[in-house]
Amino acid sequence: MDTTEMAALLGRPLTSVETTNFNTYLKLARQNLDVLLCMDLCSKEDPRTYSTREGYSTVFVDVFTDIDEVKLNGDVTTDYSVRQWDKRSASWYNSLVFGCKFDKDDEVEITASWGFDKYPIDLQSVLAGLFGLITKKNKFDGTIASKQVEDFRISFNVDADLDASFYQSYNATISKYSLCDIPEIRNGKTGGC
Asked: What's the CA gap between 70 and 63, in Å, rounded?
């Protein structure tokens, strides 16, 4: 994403501070997006290892576009299919469904093309919102209750929570991509892979 695309997504020109610090702000916004989605979109670490959920056959992983190799407990396997949630055909994926249920300490190691080829437009909008939030937080002064110049008066909401307001604005998109609510359920002994 460049400054022109960012300005278009924000719906305003970038400030001089945003332009000067564009790469730093964008890096912070991407790191914050990773936290919001409970996944790693920035790192190129490869392969990546994931813990499984006992009794399940699906492992949710960071977003990828292509798989090179999958190992289950150190052994190469092809007994899986890729999914974007429940969809079998998509431009990106976030889970693997195996032909068997996992045991307690199973691990999956994946070598893949991580991240998006290009962020979907709704996720770009969230990223731009996070970029703009950095400026808002830098300018926000919660100690000012009101300002008045002659007959012009401004009152500020001293209880404003910029993070909560941001999350409320982008909640639907965050929920669409987020892995944060995938439960870690442990249950009795099951048949393994």
From this structure: 15
**Once rounded to an integer, what is the mean pLDDT over residues 139-152?**
61
Neighbours of 149 (CB within 10 A): 7
Q: Are the beta carbons of 50 and 110 closer than 8 angstroms?
A: yes
What is the pLDDT confidence band of residue 129, given thresholds at 50, 70 and 90?
very high
pTM given for the model: 0.79
Any idea where the domains of the chain sit in the sequence?
3-40+119-177, 48-114
pLDDT (tens digit per residue) in 108-127: 999 999 999 899 999 999 99
For 26, phi then psi, to 5°, come to -65, -40
Query: For residues 57 and 192, what is the distance between their CA atoms, to the nearest angstrom?
Result: 10
Q: If phi over 0 gives left and psi between -120 and 50 gives alpha, with beta otherwise, what is residue 73?
A: left
